[in-house]
Amino acid sequence: MKSLTKQIIFGLALLIVFCIQDIQAQNLMTNVFGRHILSLNGKWSAMVDQYNQGYKMALYQNKKPQGKTDFFEYSFDGALQLNVPSDWNSQLPELKYYEGTIWYGRHFEGNVDNEKRQFLYFGAVSYRCRIFLNGKEIGSHEGGFTPFQIEITDKVKTGDNFIAVEVNNTRSKDAIPAMSFDWWNYGGITRDVMLVSTPNVYIREYSIQLDKYKPEKINAQVVLSDKKPNSNIGIEIPELNIKLKLRTDENGIASTSFTAKKIKRWSPDSPTLYTAIISSVSDRIEEKIGFRNLYVKGTNIYLNDKPIFLKCVSFHEEIPQRKGRAYSEADAAMLLTEAKALGCNMIRLAHYPQNEYTVRLAEKMGFILWQEIPIWQGIDFTDASTLIKAKSMLAEMITRDKNRCAVGFWGIANETQPSVERNKFLTTLLQTGKSMDTTRLFVAAFDLVRFNRDKKIFEMNDSFAAQLDVVAVNKYMGWYQPWPLDPKDAKWNVTPNKPLIISEFGGEALYGQSGDETVASSWSEDYQAKLYKDNITMFANIPNLRGVSPWILFDFRSPFRMHPANQEGWNRKGLVSDQGIRKKAWYIMHDYYLKIK
Ligand code: GCB
Questions:
Q1: CATH code of the domain in which 246 resides
Q2: Both 366 and 424 in a single domain?
Q3: In this predicted model, what pLDDT tens digit does every residue of 202-211 receive, in sequence order?
Q4: Is 222 inside a domain boundary?
Q5: Looking at residue 67, what DSSP letter applies?
Q6: Do 343 and 389 fall within a single domain?
Q7: Domain boundary at 231, 257, 292, which?
Q8: Is the pLDDT of residue 171 over 90?
């Protein structure tokens, strides 16, 4: 009986958490950059709180000593100054490996306006946080790579306001990612912070997208912040002579489908974007939007009705030269320009949703994007609270980027091992994703391809793969697995009825190191270059191969990689070194991509 009561209480608690998280994700506004924004970026005061005393000591109240005997040890006065946005690890040598809590605080000038609603919008805080305004807790968030907003309309004051944010990046078993992962555990307020104002009833979400299969049919949905029925909504795309008037239903939602002749569809070769203007009685927002069809038929992936081969590459959200998280448009330009030079038409944003500058610039530059949530090895699939987190990360990612036609793929997992719990978890995630988005392909990356020595063929056994639109495989032939046969004789029979992407392959090389091309432990550019040649030879034998993605564009920082001479905290699989210099393998990959039309 006791345990039944416990279970019921636990169940109810989960339900409450679920509802809160679900509401939070639903409340996210699309296109925050199209809004009236006051940036709260810049220097914030910060206090390292390794033993988690700040909350108990009410640091967030930012109190000042009043009488002669008063003092506060936990205080922002005279505190460290940290840049926002940015990780903390790269800002001070002592914080390089720091995992724990840091408090951030700053003042801003508020302005109460009855005609407006006001929100604090965080592009991302890594990994979990609590937010306080003028001494009171107003919200919290978990997940280091997706945005969230907190309404402060009735909490902000005219004049001085004080925000405190308690940020914690301690790894935990129930988190996503969990206890270990092959990239740096950057903590901090890593993306833009904004004070956003909107009309009282505002256009919270909209999606305007080409139908998955039809080249002239646009499906549109506009969602108001409030359930206002019979309210006028307008959609205009002037360059296509589109001017529509709609009315909201009882939920404040207006949906329509319409035909737009002569759309120039978006593609990597011609990344056309149109200005779309969405209006309501009290609000108006505009944004550049592109239109494309992307679907799977048989073993092919079709972009705008033509089969496409995905010339992909991955990068982390990191500027290696600065040894820190990427967060600006200039950072995005650096990473994307190097991908363009390699000859890519696609990027896998590894292994988590990256900042909006990257996504928006990639769209303008003509990259198809694979964006994923960090379900990366080691996730506790038996924990119901972890599933809730995964769902809200997926929902936040999709809500933020649902109008980015460049996003072609939502990745739901990387290198997970089959089990009943895993299958249930991923199936639920897939359902959540598909219920939110019909125009992207769903994909996951597996590391389960094995060489069958009897049949002399590469195979994979994972029943979950059948549920995906496209199957992806990470396969490190020549690095983690020695070649069991000559690469030119390597035959594959992996999900033969679906398109297959080799989503990772590669090996490590220290830039400038020459060595024996047959010896992995030479960590040489020569070994890495030969490994690339061999893999490219093998690719020719994979009948359903529709894309490849070398791992990875740049060397990246990782506490997994501590070889004292060759790694020193860096995963050296980059085609480009941490100093931005191309290795020999870069040229091999570049030639391969140049030859594929
Ligand atoms: C993988 C992971 C990736 C690692 C890579 C490696 O399979 O997906 O995150 O960084 O291998 O270098 O081992």
A1: 2.60.40.10
A2: yes
A3: 999 999 999 9
A4: yes
A5: S
A6: yes
A7: 292
A8: yes
Letter for the amino acid at 127? Y
Q: Each residue of 464-497: pLDDT tens digit?
A: 999 999 999 999 999 999 999 999 999 999 999 9
Residue 440 is given by DSSP the state S
Angle at 168 between CA 163 and CA 172, to 5 degrees: 150
**What one-letter code names the amino acid at 121?**
Y
What is the mean predicted confidence (pLDDT) over 387-399? 97
Q: Is the CB of 551 under 6 A from ligand 1?
A: yes
Contact 474, 446 (CB under 8 A): yes
Residue to mutate (ligand 1; options 373, 474, 554; most atoms within 8 A of CB): 474
pLDDT attached to residue 567? 98
Structure tokens at 320: 């290696």
Share of the chain above pLDDT 90, in %: 95
Q: Are 254 and 231 found together in one domain?
A: yes
What token pair was written down for 198?
A: 């909107």
Q: Is the CB of 182 under 6 A from ligand 1?
A: yes
Spell out the residues 6+ positions from residue 160 whose beta carbon is closer than 8 angstroms to its own.
107, 108, 109, 110
How confident is residue 550, by pLDDT bands cut at 50, 70 and 90? very high
Rounded to an integer, the average pLDDT of 316-340 is: 98
Q: Which of 551, 557, 563, 572 to mutate to test the pocket of ligand 1 (most atoms within 8 A of CB)?
A: 551
Query: Which of 388, 387, 345 shows the shortest CA–CA distance to 370?
Result: 345
**DSSP states of 447-471:** --EEEETTTTEEEE--GGGGGSSEE
Burial class (CB in 10 A: 0-12, 13-18, 19+), 313: buried
The domain of 276 spans 203-292
- Any atom of ligand 1 within 6 Å of the Cβ of 549: no
In a domain, 255, yes or no: yes
Is 17's pLDDT higher than 90? Answer: no
- 415 CB less than 6 Å from ligand 1? yes
Average pLDDT over residues 24-47: 90
Q: Measuring from atom 7 of ligand 1, which residue has the nearest CA?
A: 474
- Residue range 261-310, pLDDT digits in tens: 999 999 999 999 999 999 999 999 999 999 999 999 999 999 999 999 99
Based on the fold, state whether residues 480 and 440 are members of the same structural domain: yes
Supply the residue whose CA is at minimum distance from atom 10 of ligand 1: 182
